[in-house]
Amino acid sequence: MGDSEGSGSNSAFLQSFIQGEKGYGAVGAIFLGLLIPVLLSMAFLGKKKIKQRGVQVEVGGEPGFAMRNRRSSELMEVPWEGATTMAALFEQSCKKHAHERFLGSRKFISKEVTTAKDGRKFEKLHFGEYEWKTYGEAFVCASNFASGLVKLGHSAGTPAAIFSESRSEWFLAFQGCFRQNITVVTIYASLGEDALIHSLNETQVSTLICDSKQLKKIAAISSSLESIKHIVYFEDEGITIDSDVSSAMSNWTLSSFAEVEKLGKESPAHPKLPSKSDVSVIMYTSGSTGFPKGVMITHGNIVATAAAVTTLIPKIGRNDAYLAYLPLAHVFELAAEVTMMISGVSIGYGSALTLTDSSNKIKKGTLGDASALKPTLMAAVPAILDRVRDGVLKKVDENGGLAKKLFSVGYKRRMAAIEGSWFGAWGLEKLLWDAIVFKQVRSILGGRIRIILCGGAPLSSDTQRFTNICMGAAVGQGYGLTETFAGAAFSEMDDLSVGRVGPPVPCSYIKLISWDEGGYLITDKPMPRGEVLIGGFSVTLGYFKNEEKTNEVYKVDEKGMRWFYTGDIGQFHPDGCLEIIDRKKDIVKLQHGEYISLGKVEAALLSCNYVESVMVHADPFHSYCVALIVPSRQALENWAQGAGIEYSDFPDLCQKKETVTEVQQSLSKTAKASRLDKFEVPAKIKLLPDPWTPESGLVTAALKLKREQLKAKFKEDLLKLYG
């Protein structure tokens, strides 16, 4: 998913914890934390009853093993009667919660540029408190913007595109378009020029809505854009439009968001509202191969997913605050924010680069977004939670002493409690350890987080447990795709298991069908296994202007149910929860007939302390696999210092034979601990010093590997590894 925050952003989080533990209460705290709660917890130990979360059902289509959510026998389509479209949902939510705060943005105070010792320049920002629009004010603003688009001359029947980082104006423009039944094309702010041109020309967009930072990029490709007539930009303090940009856009009308809103206020237009089957969004994914594909999402798809998810988040409502910082052009974040809107939650916008007090772009001594908002809910992709976890554990390790021992004891006791008795998980022992050890850790994210919604990729069990214990948050781990508007499976908040993505959401069925070639069968014991199919109200119409690909992965059964063939391999646990265990495209047959799952091996190797990113490569003409690895700079430099390795810079360190040997040996230990077979352990590796980012085009906005792009860029390195 999108942007992520480096481990350096957590550098100061334990300071007050370290200071506090040196006081007189440390020994007494340990005694209380160990003796009394243990005795009390033992009294409540017992065999936990398995809660049934999914129910097996008979459905149409291809034979398989199907499940639905236990909550209702009929699939959920709307949150309440009459809310069948995004336009209706937005209007009704805004009326219902008219006086509650809705969309918040931080006041910009100042910007300064600092220069590091190596000459690199860093921008540091200072923001004030959040400033809010109420639900009622947001509805008026979106309605005015819709009227403004009509007055501006937006061509009826043509889409508008939003090409911007997440912010309140993004969501307002999005909702405004639906007041005039305008289809919205969503495009990642990090998308490259060729993909951007392709997306805008393929959909014949007439109005492009963007943030002011994107204007230069649009001006540079203006001669290649076929259908654009209007540019609407979000204003930012400190950013001005230079004459070269204005000149390149001389054939288009160029207006600010505020100007279009004012235009609509002065000339209100009668709304033209959509139906549930109309296409609301054409969402361009930052796919792993070739040009991005545009997924056609109906109003009904969005409403069904959001309505279903609201039933799975306990006590969600106006007392909650949601921290929005992931890309709204990604289905995961968009689905989350619509869910918040349904429930009357306030949404405060931030950035991955300004998330915490010690984030890369936050001026020292000022508040990050989480400290300013103090959210109760947030979404995260696993890579972000992994980096938070790594930063915390590294800092604990560096401080050592009693602080490290106390943290270790507390962590182990909490782990034992969570995996043991219910009382131990949430009773007196939890309160004690939270007060003694984990309170300061939680201040990183504002101190009030109760639920983290996680999606976009598999979450490791270690990181999930860290989030439960150190952040004190339940983890709602979800599974879905753009093609199902994120609506597939979602774990329930009282489910303390790891590695699973929960039962089907109430708007969808999930069915497994046998994949004979890969050896995954619905008759497998102890759990049925197979390719994951998703059916129901969340399943989208298909790919824009790509009927061949649509027909390949979408099928309609004899009952009219639409199914999407995901290509993922899953298994159902006895309680009806899904676990994703493989992916058809990631499976390669080696020279001697062994099958290797690249994703499975990569997930295992990511737990190695030296690994920040990894791509495993397997060739059918060889009997072994190899790996490209971006190492953790801090971990590698710490090792080099301890081992007395001399080097000129980080790239030089990565090339040294001793370094490669050290990482290779560590990978072997990690692979053994993960029970990988010998042929699954990379026989050779290449260490690459530069990180893989969405901007480099080597990973998606959700930080998934772009395997084909990586193979192309490092073709020579891969050839040498097999040489």
Automatic annotation (TrEMBL):
Keywords: Membrane, Transmembrane, Transmembrane helix. The keyword Oxidoreductase does not apply. It catalyses: a long-chain fatty acid + ATP + CoA = a long-chain fatty acyl-CoA + AMP + diphosphate. The chain crosses the membrane at residues 23-45. GO terms for molecular function: long-chain fatty acid-CoA ligase activity. PROSITE patterns: AMP_BINDING. InterPro entries: AMP-bd_C_sf, AMP-binding_CS, AMP-dep_synth/lig_dom, ANL_N_sf. Residues 123-544 form the AMP-dependent synthetase/ligase domain. One of its GO terms (cellular component) is endoplasmic reticulum. This is AMP-dependent synthetase/ligase domain-containing protein. It comes from Aquilegia coerulea.
